[in-house]
Amino acid sequence: MPADMQRYVAFLGSINVGGNRILMADLREALRREDFTDVETVVASGNVLFSHEPRPSEGLADKLAWVVQDRFDIDSLVIVKTRIEVDAAITGNPFHGTGPDHGSDKMVHTIFLDGQPDEDSFHDLLAEHKAKGGERLALGDRMLFLDYVHGAGVSSLTGPFLQRRLEVRGTARNMSSLKRITAKMGELDGKGAA
């Protein structure tokens, strides 16, 4: 990778769910046409690794969201992070690790948010959900950490529910996916650094 390029990952929300279908080959090609290089999709739909001249993550997210809207007519939440930021989303997750107090990598998620939720809204969510399920939640910097314990499929803490309660949009990835993404980012930058 040229020295003037930075490696990033984009997390796209609501891709290949419902009617929002995009072939990953078509997405890669659309991004290449807009000056994204070394474009690769990884783990599952909606995770795109790419190189770009260094820019603020929000600007790159806006550019990616514009491409998805323009080429595929899908309004998708896009969150862009460096490898260092993804590593922090793993190590900063209080439910991730080893031992009896930590969940499995498939159940523990980091939800990347497009804004910082209000503390009062988060505490109201905790109080409301306390009697409804065994999931564990913690708030980070534009992230929500969530241990689904028994699985996301049986939880009432869905994306739309969280968006209504916290008034921010988010897209979730489990620890297994995030670890594979950071490993791939390390392979591609050749140095293991973001």
Automatic annotation (TrEMBL):
<dbReference type="InterPro" id="IPR012545">
    <property type="entry name" value="DUF1697"/>
</dbReference>
<protein>
    <recommendedName>
        <fullName>DUF1697 domain-containing protein</fullName>
    </recommendedName>
</protein>
<dbReference type="Pfam" id="PF08002">
    <property type="entry name" value="DUF1697"/>
</dbReference>
